[in-house]
Write a structure and sequence with these properties.
By secondary structure, the protein is mainly β. The chain folds into two domains: about 100 residues, Immunoglobulin-like (Sandwich), CATH 2.60.40.10; about 120 residues, Immunoglobulin-like. Keywords: Cell membrane, Disulfide bond, Glycoprotein, Immunoglobulin domain, Membrane, Phosphoprotein, Receptor, Signal, Transmembrane, Transmembrane helix, Ubl conjugation.
Length: about 260
């Protein structure tokens, strides 16, 4: 009987020793943290954080889009902490989710998931570029459409194609001295807009004044706006009007 007790204790000791030297399970591999999606010019990129490990971890990133049930691998066995998922966004209006897991040696962590993200709603788009010209008693403002990136390919915004996420109107802010006027330019007005730019003509009733212009685009959904452009200015004076008129008009000073 005493022999059986000793044998049992010995076997338990061996079992504990084996457990102590066994490889750690999957739960011992930390999961990634702060999984976020950022998008600029409709180019979504996933970012995450990971703690320092004795062995270099590698990561797998998967994407799931609303309406598609399967998770699709976007990046695999990468050591950096970001992944470009542009190639997996078919429609910038569709919601998407991302999950990331780490692998250290032969062990993998559980997945860390992102919040729901919609490129058109939550992403950022660069501001329109502006040009300004003085023409007689008016100024002409050129509003150049931002470049956007869909599926990783750069293209100019085409307002005549059936695309799902686009700029429908520009808010143009014209500041004269300390007063500001808001103009709205519809991208659907063919007289004012084409595939490259829109134009706005503003009368110049006040001479010897500085006219400053900035603009932002408003998307067709959710009221999302692009970034606002930097302000550009031009000064209108009596002499500048004379120079612009030249032989085309007669300008007479009141004395």
């Amino acid at each position: 009987m005493a022999f059986l007790v000793l044998l049992t204790l010995a076997m338990q000791g061996v079992s504990r020793a084996e457990m102590g030297t066994a490889d750690p399970g999957p739960s011992s591999v930390p999961i990634p943290t702060n999984v976020t999606i950022e998008s600029y010019n409709m180019k979504p990129i996933v970012y995450w954080e990971y703690q320092i490990m004795p062995q270099v971890p590698v990561f797998t990133v998967e994407v799931k889009t609303y309406g598609y049930g399967d998770w699709i691998v976007a990046c695999t066995n990468i050591s950096h902490r970001y992944c470009n998922i542009s190639d997996h966004v078919n429609d910038p209006l569709n919601s998407l989710w991302v999950r990331v897991k780490a692998r250290v040696g032969q062990k993998e962590s559980a997945y860390a998931k992102s919040e729901e993200f919609t490129v058109c709603q939550h992403g950022k788009i660069e501001p329109p570029k502006l040009g300004i010209r003085k023409e007689e008693k008016q100024i002409t403002i050129d509003i150049f459409h931002p470049s956007v990136f869909v599926n990783g390919e750069g293209q100019e915004v085409d307002y005549y194609d059936e695309i799902t996420c686009y700029i429908i109107v520009y808010n143009v802010y014209v500041r004269v001295n300390k007063s500001e006027i808001l103009y709205k330019v519809s991208t659907k007005m063919e007289d004012d807009c084409n595939e490259i730019q829109c134009q706005l003509t503003v009368p110049v009733p006040s001479l010897n004044s500085q006219y400053c212009v900035s603009a932002e685009g408003v998307l067709n959904v959710w009221g999302v706006t692009t970034e606002k452009s930097e302000e550009i200015c031009v000064t209108i004076s009596n002499s500048s009007i004379k120079d612009l008129c030249g032989k085309k008009c007669h300008y007479r000073d009141k004395t």
